[in-house]
Inverse folding.
């Protein structure tokens, strides 16, 4: 049985500052962080200016693949303002390569190929933008000018940028260690069972799909500022990063060999990440290393052109997918073969994205009894590919939902019917691809989305559009995601080289005000508000009396950071556990004050009360007593009220929902407009609906951007990046979207105390398939490649005249 | 950005004099193309002669009882877009100016800068050519048909300064732009006008040698000013641009569709 | 060679000398330490650097500081009156029109610069008018709502 709460009104119609029974949890509270962002008082990494500041500029490869014959730096060293120039040759042998945090073991039992990823190129460059040297100068302009004087003699080598080309016999090898460019071949699921399902199928739907390469494009470019202190032989690194503790661990333990406790990593205000700021990058590592040599702080801020060339990209899959159905449209089996680009080097989590976060999601919301997926990961002469909002799950949803929609059309079954016929309805449900869904109600979200989208009125709208010479189409996408990364033991058995718990500390001050320290990081998600709401709700104090600190290894016990929609489910739970400890201790103090036994004291609404009486002490008095322990059980209890908790989840969480996109196409030009987009999602319990809706909107824009506008394109011959600026990479603008219609249904997560699942990626996961399915519906095409540019749509309209 | 000398002359003579004195100098108008190019190291002039303090280069004048409009070279796109005079007489020109780049760019970018720059995907060249306008410089008057010489190439001599552009008021005109979704420049832009000398059709964004006229369409429109008259006319794709954003074939198709829509709208 | 440079920034007169090649954004973020104006690109497209020059939104990354000679420049730091947010700032906060906050200063100033341009702009007009500002976080949905209300409040 699932506990389904259906809210009738769309969430957006709720009052602005409603305080529900139960306090601030569930309320649309305005964000605490906004005051500084709205007045220009935010402190992003580039805003941090340190005494004796110097500036760095990187010399980068103009070639996709080349041998470095010679490197001359004298002219650059002699240029005005230059303090130092370092190349790969200056990096000591003891410095390691940038590590990959997830070991994938191939189907052949062999570990993935892990060629070294040097922090400055050694002997060879492997993608356009590969850093070759760092120039440090008194000003950013001087560093940049001097960088142009570094003379590199390259011997250009043949390059491969497309996974299909990289797999060809005789293709140039990106790394000598992987002569066939294969990093690993990995599989999941029962192949024999899947083959048997296809053998008895009444219908088979087959699709060849390309999941287009994307560039994350957080509007704040990557940046860092590294400084060394001779006084205590320690380093401080400011960096635009989503998980400073992981950054520090990887940098100190695997690359620079520095004592971890001598390095403090601060991720101050961070202007968006979407995955691209999870990773340990070469630039900040080089700056930390060089900061001791130059004895002054070194700042580097990427120009947008550098971001295009060197941020980890997302997606880039080529897939063949098949769905087997019986005569009634019930799914019997699925077979998927995917080739996934890794880029030139393995980025921090690259290897687990097209495997652990992809193949495991291929069951979607459906009872498909047999699934088999084989993934070949391939090196190419491009920027590395890693997690970008959704990370593997958008690719999986795209495969599943394109297959389902296509099968329905081929078999003449209505889009909602084929889904209803196959939905999982009993929980917990163990999929054939290694996950166990704890709870959900997929039909509730489907119905909710159909209502939002006014599916009933669609035929009329289509007819009206036809009168104006326009084509209309409706596309469904029922996605699922595995969030709340992750049970460490499960992740470890799958190859993770780190734990995936989260830490939280709750420090109650003598006056009863609270500072919360979280290992999770906010770069737009609003933790300072949401986490304060969670604590305020439990402690019965005002949200304004709670401050949330994040992004500083010097202040926070530990943390794994923000990605995979894990913050509230894992980070929030860690904080709740710490709050539980505070309450437990507070109860003992209160019992002492009221001279009753601990068991007789209960805590609610900010008061410790003797059960069955109105005798109580308020929370603030208990806090004061903890720090002024005059009347205190010192023999049994330590003074102070400050607790830390680590939380390791027992399962993933499984947000799910249905998105419905309505498009209108101008058949003469192929121009495609999203006329409506409806999303009904189940994120479990919701702490702040305003923030959740914002997360959905942002994700949808990125998902629709992938479907209609965005593509990272490398020239197939030269390996040059053709979309190296916003002149050629189409970023979504306001006029590319309608206002979104969003709503939620709630089945609380069964295995965390808040009942939350996470909402950060849903939009980006669900939207692409919904958009493409809508275009196919409007045009009658079986497929249209993403991004569905006007030219592509114009072509499919011509090829499919009369088929819609 | 490379260092450069900067002057801000307050008389025309000083401006042209400064330009003449230094072959490596460039005029600075809104800077929306020039500064962007200098930042990327694509242009490195030794001296910038800022035209901002020359009021004679600004403003919009109605000429000869409303037969023509003269727009000063330093008039920003936003001012042309919002101008009542332009809106009332050549609405297509106001609409074109209002569709250039984005709002911030339109607040700075100027007519003179756009024409001198002659980006093959810029909008103004289509209007200048489509309306048979005259480019007035400090030295001479240049007919639109003689002004555009290819990609980023114009008839301007070194140091020659665009003062204004005179647009004859047409009987009818319209501009249809299909935007490049990334840059917002024209993937294809078609300007059609019914002028005193007959119909003109100018295309920007598509040509492999910059803005051009489609004579076959003009002839068809001379016989019959209607969208239908253009239906069977194809612009040969072989003369059009093929790039990341669109094939020549698609651009050729768009020229036809946009021309028909522009005629219907005019 | 530095040249004399005077202008008004957020209501305060500033007189100094600058190199002609200094961009307006470099001048604001550097010597004036007004770091609320952000840089998000190198091709004058993202709008994160938008400031008001004589009331009009312009991209401070794509103009020389010297081109603002004698002008009245407003940055995000100059909008609020003490602790009281400008109506546009307040509307962004109320409607959750910002997430990471990086695009926000440019977005807010661009929106403020719309005041008086069109009376009660429609949603579509607002979306068109934001053509010079990228936001990667919000999907623009709440920004549009905020701008609509902010403009109404500015004229109220
Ligand atoms: C983000 C962005 C988007 C854009 N989108 C579009 C678009 O969609 N459509 C479009 O058409 N344009 C677009 N542009 C270009 C814009 O219209 C520019 O304003 C225009 O191309 C140049 O005008 P300017 O006044 O800024 O000239 P500047 O950049 O100052 O100068 C450009 C060139 O013209 C020369 N020059 C300037 N004035 C004169 C003069 N009076 N006489 C002789 N030479 C002169 C300069 O020396 C320089 O070589 C865009 C620009 C940007 C930054
Ligand atoms: S920084 Fe992107 S437009 Fe100015
Ligand atoms: S709020 Fe992050 S880019 Fe707009």
């Amino acid at each position: 049985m699932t506990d389904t709460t259906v809210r009738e009104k769309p969430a957006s119609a709720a009052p602005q500052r409603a305080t529900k029974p139960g306090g601030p949890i569930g309320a649309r509270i305005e964000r605490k962080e906004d005051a500084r962002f709205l007045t220009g008082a935010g402190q992003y990494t580039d805003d941090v200016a340190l005494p004796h500041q110097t500036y760095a500029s990187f010399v980068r490869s103009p070639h996709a693949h080349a041998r470095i014959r010679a490197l001359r730096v004298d002219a650059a060293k002699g240029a005005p303002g230059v303090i130092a120039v370092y190349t790969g040759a200056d990096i000591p042998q003891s410095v390691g390569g940038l590590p990959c945090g997830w070991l994938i073991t191939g189907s052949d039992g062999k570990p993935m190929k892990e060629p070294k990823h040097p922090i400055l190129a050694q002997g060879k460059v492997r993608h356009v933008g590969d850093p070759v040297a760092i120039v440090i100068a008194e000003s950013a302009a001087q560093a940049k000018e001097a960088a142009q004087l570094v003379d590199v003699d390259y011997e250009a080598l043949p390059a491969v940028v497309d996974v299909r080309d990289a797999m060809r016999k005789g293709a140039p090898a990106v790394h000598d260690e992987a002569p066939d460019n294969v990093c690993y071949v990995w599989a999941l699921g029962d192949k024999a069972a899947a083959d048997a399902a296809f053998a008895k199928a009444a219908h088979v739907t087959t699709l060849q799909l390309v999941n287009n390469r994307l560039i994350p494009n957080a509007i704040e470019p990557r940046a860092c500022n590294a400084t060394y202190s001779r006084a205590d032989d320690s380093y401080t690194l400011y960096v635009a990063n989503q998980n400073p503790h992981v950054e520090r661990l990887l940098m100190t333990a695997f690359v620079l060999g520095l004592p971890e406790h001598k390095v403090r990593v601060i991720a101050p205000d961070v202007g968006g990440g979407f995955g691209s700021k999870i990773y340990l990058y070469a630039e900040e590592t080089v700056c930390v290393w060089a900061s001791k040599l130059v004895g002054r702080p070194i700042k580097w801020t990427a120009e947008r052109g550098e971001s295009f060339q060197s941020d980890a990209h997302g997606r880039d899959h080529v897939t063949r997918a098949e769905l087997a159905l019986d005569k009634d449209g019930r799914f019997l089996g699925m077979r998927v073969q995917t080739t996934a680009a890794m880029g030139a080097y393995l980025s921090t989590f690259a290897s687990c994205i097209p495997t652990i976060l992809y193949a495991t999601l291929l069951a979607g919301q459906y009872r498909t009894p047999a699934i088999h997926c084989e993934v070949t990961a391939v090196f190419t002469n491009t920027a590395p590919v890693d997690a970008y909002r959704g990370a593997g799950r958008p690719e999986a949803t795209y495969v599943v939902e394109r297959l389902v929609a296509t099968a329905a059309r081929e078999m003449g079954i209505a889009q909602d019917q084929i889904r209803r016929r196959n939905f999982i309805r009993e929980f917990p449900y163990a999929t054939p691809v290694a996950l166990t869904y704890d709870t959900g109600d997929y039909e509730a979200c489907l119905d909710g989305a159909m209502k939002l989208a006014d599916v009933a009125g669609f035929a009329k709208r289509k007819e009206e559009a036809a009168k104006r010479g326009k084509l209309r189409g409706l596309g469904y996408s029922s996605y699922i995601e595995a969030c709340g990364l992750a049970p460490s033991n499960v992740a470890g058995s799958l190859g993770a080289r780190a734990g995936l718990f989260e830490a939280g500390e709750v420090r109650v001050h003598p006056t009863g005000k609270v500072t919360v320290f979280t290992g999770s990081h906010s770069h737009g998600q609003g933790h300072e508000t949401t986490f304060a709401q969670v604590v305020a709700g439990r402690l019965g104090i005002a949200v304004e009396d709670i401050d949330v600190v994040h992004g500083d290894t010097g202040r926070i016990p530990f943390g794994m950071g923000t990605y995979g929609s894990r913050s509230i489910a894992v980070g929030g739970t860690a904080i709740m556990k710490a709050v539980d400890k505070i309450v437990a201790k507070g109860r003992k103090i209160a019992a002492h004050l009221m001279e009753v036994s601990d068991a007789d004291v209960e805590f609610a609404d900010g008061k410790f009360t003797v059960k069955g009486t109105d005798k109580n002490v308020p929370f603030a008095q208990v806090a004061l007593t903890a720090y002024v322990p005059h009347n205190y059980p010192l023999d049994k209890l330590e003074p102070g009220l400050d607790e830390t908790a680590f939380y390791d989840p027992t399962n993933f969480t499984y947000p799910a929902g249905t998105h419905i996109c309505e498009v209108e196409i101008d058949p003469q030009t192929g121009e495609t407009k999203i006329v409506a987009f409806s999303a009904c999602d189940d994120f479990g319990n919701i702490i702040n609906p305003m923030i959740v809706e914002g997360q959905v909107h942002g994700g949808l824009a990125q998902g629709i951007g992938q479907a209609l506008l965005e593509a990272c394109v490398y020239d197939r011959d030269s390996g040059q990046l053709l979309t190296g600026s916003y002149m050629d990479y189409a970023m979504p603008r306001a006029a590319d979207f309608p206002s979104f219609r969003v709503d939620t249904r709630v089945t609380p997560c069964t295995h965390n105390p808040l009942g939350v699942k996470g909402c950060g990626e849903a939009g980006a996961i669900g939207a692409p398939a919904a958009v493409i399915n809508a275009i196919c519906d409007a045009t009658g095409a079986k497929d249209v490649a993403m991004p569905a540019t006007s030219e592509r749509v114009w072509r499919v309209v011509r090829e499919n005249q009369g088929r819609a | 950005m490379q260092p450069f000398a900067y002057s801000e002359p307050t008389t025309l003579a000083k401006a042209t004099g400064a330009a003449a004195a230094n072959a490596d100098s460039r005029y600075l108008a809104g800077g929306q193309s020039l500064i962007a190019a200098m930042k990327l190291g694509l242009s490195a002039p030794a001296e910038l002669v800022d035209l901002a303090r020359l009021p004679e280069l600004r403003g919009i004048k109605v000429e000869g009882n409303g037969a023509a409009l003269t727009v000063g070279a330093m008039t920003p796109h936003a001012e042309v877009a919002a101008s009542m005079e332009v809106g009332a007489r050549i609405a297509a020109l106001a609409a074109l100016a209002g569709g250039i780049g984005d709002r911030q760019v339109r607040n700075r970018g100027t007519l003179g800068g756009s024409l001198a720059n002659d980006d093959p995907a810029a909008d103004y060249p289509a209007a200048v050519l489509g309306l048979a306008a005259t480019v007035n410089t400090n030295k001479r008057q240049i007919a639109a048909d003689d002004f555009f010489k290819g990609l980023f190439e114009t008839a301007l001599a070194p140091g020659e300064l665009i003062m204004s552009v005179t647009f004859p008021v047409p009987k009818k005109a319209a501009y249809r732009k299909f935007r490049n979704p990334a840059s917002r420049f024209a993937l294809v832009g078609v300007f059609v006008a019914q002028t005193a000398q007959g119909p003109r059709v100018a295309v920007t964004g598509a040509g492999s040698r910059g803005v051009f006229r489609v004579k076959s369409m003009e002839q068809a429109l001379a016989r019959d000013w209607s969208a239908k008259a253009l239906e069977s006319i194809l612009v040969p794709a072989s003369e059009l641009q093929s790039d990341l954003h669109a094939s020549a074939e698609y651009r050729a198709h768009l020229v036809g569709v946009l021309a028909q829509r522009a005629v219907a709208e005019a | 060679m530095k040249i004399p440079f005077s202008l008004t920034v957020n209501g305060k007169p500033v007189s100094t000398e600058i190199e002609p090649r200094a961009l307006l954004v470099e001048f604001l973020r550097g010597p004036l330490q007004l770091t609320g104006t952000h840089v998000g690109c190198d091709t004058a497209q993202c709008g994160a650097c938008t400031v008001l020059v004589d009331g009009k939104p312009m991209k401070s990354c794509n103009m020389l500081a010297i081109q603002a000679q004698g002008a009245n420049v407003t940055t995000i730091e100059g909008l609020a009156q003490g602790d009281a947010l400008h109506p546009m700032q307040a509307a962004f906060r109320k409607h959750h029109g910002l997430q990471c906050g990086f695009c926000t200063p440019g977005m807010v100033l661009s929106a403020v610069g719309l005041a008086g341009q069109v009376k009660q702009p429609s949603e579509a007009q607002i979306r068109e008018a934001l053509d010079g500002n990228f936001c990667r976080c919000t999907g623009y949905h709440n920004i549009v709502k905020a701008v609509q209300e902010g403009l109404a409040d500015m004229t109220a």
